[in-house]
Write a structure and sequence with these properties.
This is DUF2299 domain-containing protein. It comes from Methanobrevibacter olleyae. It holds the Pfam family DUF2299. By secondary structure, the protein is α+β, with helices and mostly antiparallel strands. 39% of the residues lie in helices and 27% in strands. It has 4 helices and 6 strands; from the N terminus they run H-E-E-E-E-H-H-E-E-H. Strands 1-2-3-4-6-5 form a 6-stranded antiparallel sheet, covered by helices on one side. Helix 3 packs antiparallel against helix 4. The longest helix has 26 residues.
Length: 158
């Protein structure tokens, strides 16, 4: 059974989250949302799997932070990558880490919701969960390399 785009769109509109709908040849529909504020996330219903909604967030590590990582000891970088893996795995999130030479450049966090479990409550909770996964990575990056200011992200988002 296919995901009801109108229902998903209405839920996102109710919460004031939609930034734009974009064309995606591989998707039945693809929305860019703001959660929270100006943090972009994707809501995708892929053509290849019509009964699933993918909530995702891709994050590029800044050039400044990449330089800090590049100039750090290899063992420190490897330990950092493992901390990210363990943390996201504990949150039961799907993820892809791009880390050539053990230097994180980008990470993508996703979570699927299948049609038979899709409700507004589950959608919003999943959006929050994916964002909190991103936040966790940013905090681990800052703690490991000292490159993030304490006020870049609030302590609690609920």
């Amino acid at each position: 059974m296919a995901i009801d785009e109108e229902q998903v769109k209405n839920w996102l509109l109710d919460e004031g989250l939609i930034r734009e709908k974009i064309y995606d040849e591989n998707a039945n529909f693809h929305y860019i949302i703001n959660f929270p504020n100006n943090n972009a996330m994707d809501i995708i219903n892929p053509k290849s799997k019509e009964d699933v909604l993918i909530i995702g967030c891709a994050t590029e590590v800044s050039h400044e932070e990449q330089n800090i990582i590049k100039n750090s000891p290899k063992e420190m970088n490897q330990e950092f990558i493992w901390k990210i893996r363990f943390s996201l795995n504990e949150m039961l999130l799907d993820f892809e880490l791009e880390h050539p030479n053990d230097q994180l450049t980008r990470f993508i966090i996703t979570e699927d919701i299948f049609e038979d479990g899709l409700t507004k409550h589950v959608l919003i909770k999943t959006i929050k969960k994916v964002f909190k996964g991103k936040l966790q990575c940013i905090w681990i990056l800052g703690k490991t390399y000292g490159s993030i200011q304490n006020n870049d992200f609030p302590d609690v988002l609920d």
